[in-house]
Automatic annotation (TrEMBL):
Major place of residence: mitochondrion
Top-level taxonomic group: Eukaryota
GO biological process, one term: gamma-aminobutyric acid catabolic process
Protein known as: Succinate-semialdehyde dehydrogenase
Cellular component annotations (GO), alphabetically ordered: mitochondrion
InterPro entries from the UniProt entry: Ald_DH/histidinol_DH (IPR016161), Ald_DH_C (IPR016163), Ald_DH_CS_GLU (IPR029510), Ald_DH_N (IPR016162), Aldehyde_DH_dom (IPR015590), Aldehyde_DH_Superfamily (IPR050740), Succ_semiAld_DH (IPR010102)
GO molecular function, one term: succinate-semialdehyde dehydrogenase (NAD+) activity
EC number, as in UniProt: 1.2.1.24
Amino acid sequence: MQLVHLHSTGRLENMLGSSLCRILRRRPLKVTRCQVQEFTTSPQKIAISKVKEAGLLHSKALIGGKWLGANDGRTLPVHSPATGEVLVEVPYMGEVETNSAINEASKAFAGWRALTGSERSKLLRNWYDLLIANKEHLGHLITLEQGKPLTEALGEVVYGSNFVEFFAEEAKRIYGDIIPAPFSDRRIVVLKQPVGVVGAITPWNFPLAMITRKVAAAFAAGCTAVVKPSELTPLTALAAAELACQAGIPPGVLNVVMGDAPRIGDALMASNEVRKITFTGSTAVGKKLMAGAAGTVKKLSLELGGNAPCIIFDDADIDVAVKGTLASKFRNSGQTCVSVNRIFVQAGIYDKFSDAFATAVKSLEVGNGLHKGVAQGPLINEAAVEKVERHLEDALSKGAKVLLGGKKHSLGSTFYEPTVLTDTSTDMIIFREEVFGPVAPLIKFKTEEDVIQMANDTLFGLAAYFFTQNLSRAWRVAEALEFGMVGINEGIISTEVAPFGGVKQSGLGREGSKYGIDEYLEVKYLCMGSIKSF
Ligand code: SIN
């Protein structure tokens, strides 16, 4: 039912953007290749000036309700991944500014937690309304600084805003417990209280949604926050913060600092005021944060790397399998933690699937995300392209064959051709580490037992996908896969109502859904004694 609902209410467009969605629905797509000369600065400039006119282009950080530069005046350029242009300069902050943001968040905490759930709910709802009212501007900002196609960026605005709406509702439902006591003169009550100041460290691949997924839950619980967005994509964070101010969220409840990531991270970790760190990003950084949290014994939520298997069984509906795999692999040009990374195809369906899949991949138009019809934007920077190249080189040296793509795109140094590899094997780097790019490696398998063993043979456990029409197999495989989230005949599983998170080295805790708010709450037990009975 839920999956049907996703499609029927247009949520698939929200997640993927209409270009990719159009391909998935197999309507004919007129493919026009992007011209290099289209990459003038004008679409960027027009988009930036519209965002500026709307008052959403900030070049200062937000601390205690004030827009401030770095103490020493240093700045950091934010580039368009599509053209390399500098969009705007933002403050390059460090420890001092982070400590002052923590201080403001601490001061605001008492007042914010004292509001009723329904008062916090109304302010969150105002924020949601403003985010949605400014969908076009925020979408343009995401495409400008992150690169994803505009339709996908607009989808992210809706996805990200939905967390604010969802947690606005949850703010009113933070229930405790009454536990029957083992003694007649005692009563046992359990309260849920906000953990305190939260440090939220967010990535560049979803410049809005990864912030709202964290802070909306934190705010609903009564916590205040210091957010450190990625230095690559701070502009959407600042625009969202501007809208939070307009919504009436009090000064100091939301603070946004950026600049020297290690120094900001260290200040957040060292502070006794910061009681919780929530992070989305690499497993390597997550491990450092985990070690760093020991010094002050902070609560942690970590949403780290994945290595998602996608299994196509012989009994799969091939159209459904192609659509689902394409959606998961090529969303955000493969730059999501839940992107399919290893595609296992059963021998009996291998040729049919690989042909149909390569045909679908071929129809993805590559270009500047601001251009109409584009389904694949640039990768975030040249380092991301170099990583893809390293994975390809390794795979080809170990016997993989290129069915489609396989090299940098002629559009520029941040573009990579949507790629399909065959004859891949489990000894290749691409099967061990997430490629975080538009490369789909196919591997043939024989039996269900073999493929479950191969799928689970990874240090990571975020998302997994499989396609089958056999109900018993669906249960069996879903239960056997060691992953926090499993898509069955579905490639897009993210939604604000479901718990997002992984097992093994993919992280700790869950975001979104009714479970997400628990990450920002402490359980307090009250024991009332000497109760006289009749
Ligand atoms: C991520 O890549 O970390 C988030 C993806 C999602 O929310 O779907």
